[in-house]
Amino acid sequence: MGTLNHLLGFSLVRPRPRFCAIRIVNSSEVAGVSRQRVLEQVDKELAKGDERAALSLVKELQGKPGGLKCFGAARQVPQRLYTLDELKLNGIETSSLLSPVDATLGSIERNLQITALLGGLATWKVFELNAQQLLSLTLAGLFLWTVDLVSYNGGVSSLVLDTIGHAFSQKYHNRVIQLRALSLCDCNFDKFTESINIIFVQHEAGHFLIAYLMGILPRGYTLSSLEALTKVGSLNVQAGTAFVDFEFLEEVNAGKVTATMLNRFSCVALAGVATEYLLYGYAEGGLSDINQLDLLLKSLGFTQKKANSQVRWAVLNTILTLRRHEKARSKLAEAMSSRKSVGSCIDLIEEHIDVTDL
């Protein structure tokens, strides 16, 4: 072979093999990046107020590999009339869940009323006001209270109570924003390391999680009345989680709400009190959510028996769903306490719920 090469006037040189590093990209990584990009766009559409575009983006990824496997994918219990005994067998005491009494905020309100009364008496004595001046001050106070009630739906009162509750009542603050301090120590138990505070905004996280799993896109959230005022710029808007609900409103305006849509919003309405019940064994907040659901069922012409059936099913369905996804709810609450965007919260839900648990 070598002689032949020499006679032909050239030589054959065997090329040395070259090796290049090739990174094998996991399909889940690509899908995760794609999902994050879409969710970033969802945040942009929500920020612009284009709810239809945001919902359209979410639905395009719904149920697709590497997309949004959890959106509207919650496993639900059969819908029928459940007895109170059946709920008790599932560890649900409806009297502790569906009759929330905000004893904490009520106590703060009573103390403020007593303080205002004592302040008025002190002002009367110090400045030696006559009866006419005292009456004028009283009427002015009643006028301002009426304006707040009529024009702002009690927004000013709610803002004052909520702000004072967060500032001076640890119990109220912990109910809305559950605070857990974990003290870690070294192996010799000689000293404690610094405490780690993990804030879980459980009530609103319950609303957010259940809405997403039921197929309702959260639009945004605020965690206090002061934050709602700062973000929205209106006293008529109270703290809480808002949703993309134009489909629901279209059905209401058409005079025909489908069973699917009613089931979704029934569970979302009860998600906050259900979360509090699972955490504390009772619920204090969420009375307005229950009242709104009650008004909706009455407006749809539900009899008391039919309304009870709807509420009991929603309670059972919501409680069981929250129990299955307790870890995701806690992670979501932590993200919400850090004021993460809606898209980031959705991405977190998708990461912490296994498709086999849906």
Protein described:
GO terms for molecular function: ATP binding; ATP-dependent peptidase activity; metalloendopeptidase activity. InterPro entries: Peptidase_M41-like. The protein has 358 residues and is mainly alpha-helical. It folds into 2 domains: 57-103 and 203-351, no CATH class; 104-197, no CATH class. 63% of the residues lie in helices and 5% in strands. The chain has helices at 2-8, 27-48, 51-61, 84-89, 94-97, 103-127, 131-151, 155-168, 170-176, 202-214, 225-232, 246-253, 259-280, 287-299, 304-324, 326-337, 342-352, and strands spanning 178-182, 196-200, 218-222, 240-243. The strands form 2 sheets. It has a two-stranded antiparallel sheet with strand order 1-2. Helix 10 (202-214) crosses helix 16 (326-337) and helix 13 runs antiparallel to helix 14. The longest helix is centred in the first third of the chain and has 25 residues, at 103-127. It is globular.
Could you provide a short overview of the structure?
With 358 residues, this protein is mainly alpha-helical. The protein is built from 17 helices and four strands. Helix 10 (202-214) runs antiparallel to helix 13 (259-280) and helix 13 (259-280) runs antiparallel to helix 14.
Q: How many E-type strands?
A: 4
Biggest sheet statistics? 2 strands, antiparallel
Q: Helix-strand pattern, N to C?
A: HHHHHHHHHEEHEHEHHHHHH
| Count, helices | 17
| Percent range of helical residues | 55-70%
Which structural category fits the helices and strands?
A: mainly alpha
CA radius of gyration is 29 Å
Protein name: Peptidase M41 domain-containing protein
GO molecular function, one term: ATP binding
Organism: Dillenia turbinata
